[in-house]
Amino acid sequence: MDRAETVRTPSSWVVVGLDNGGTCNNATVLDATGQFLVSNLVENPSRVLDGPESAVEALAEAFTGILELTSTPLSLVRAVGLDTPGPASANGVISSKGATNFNMAAWHGFDIRGALEKRLGLSVVYHNDANAAALYAHHRHFGAEALEKGSVSAIVGTGLGGGVVENGKVIRGAAGMAGELGHVQIPLHGVLDDGQPVPVCNCGFEGDVESIASLTGIKKNLLPYWLTRFPDHPLAGEPIERAAKLLRGYGEKDDPLAIAVFSQQARAIGKLFTIAANFTDPDAYFLGGGVVEAAPHFRQWFLNTVRESTQLRDEQARAATFALVPDLDMAGARGAAVAALDAVAAGTR
């Protein structure tokens, strides 16, 4: 397990946050006073490709390792927060359709929350990774006012994850699938170029946000089109999957093709936030994902383009803020820990 640069021992009871990913787990500890005991990534291999049993054991190792690192006695742990990539139910049952990280048949319908709870002998609170990041962004941004505010987050990655927070709580929905913002279909006027084919999502929808604002959308829809407009571009000689991953580096250098692609992504997210403005009228709109990990000038340009593409009434524009999800590589684990702390405080765990 990688060591964090700064650790401290707890002065009160704690909760543990565990972020499960395709290659690594990330762990953190949050004490009852709202202080995180580690300030950097603390990771171990997630082993999800080895199947559920190995993955649950790897999460248990992450749990044990973070307690050792922070000199936290097991007796002080009141609950554990867990997040995984979706799709999954509100209670942490992996969808039968599976996700990229959970494509083995053994994962389909697997109750990862319940399995970890049994393995650790502690209550486990579950969110998907986008909801956990959204929750952390909300609480980090608003601090003491978090329970009085609302926010909407768009997390751009392989897909487009999202989270809706109201009064400091993630809106989960009847089946646990609220906040699946990637599959909101948006008006394409002002997003697509003249004659550009309507993007199709892997879910089968046409013109949803994920079909444009995601790495998959770049690979499947946007880049193939824009390479026809820039046939001499260096990426034209690369396999499309590699070209899609290299595109952000070109965007950071203000390459015209890359700017065309990322402008479309930003405008699509603006359309999404415009819809959100008329549903929840949030206090803040958060943007996370790969663009946050880019060079500062590029991510600020992207956020500005999202803001300019979001149509708000004057009253909303004065009241709302646009911001980047902070500490993105740690946001999932920290958000999972915040959810666990809230559950303990509310007496539900």
From TrEMBL:
InterPro entries: ATPase_NBD, ROK, ROK_cs
Source taxon at top rank: Bacteria
Matching PROSITE patterns: ROK
Signal peptide residue numbers: none
Family listed: Belongs to the ROK (NagC/XylR) family.
PANTHER family per the UniProt record, alphabetical: GLUCOKINASE, ROK (REPRESSOR, ORF, KINASE) FAMILY
Protein's name according to its UniProt entry: ROK-family protein
Naturally occurring in which organism (per UniProt): Actinoplanes missouriensis (strain ATCC 14538 / DSM 43046 / CBS 188.64 / JCM 3121 / NBRC 102363 / NCIMB 12654 / NRRL B-3342 / UNCC 431)
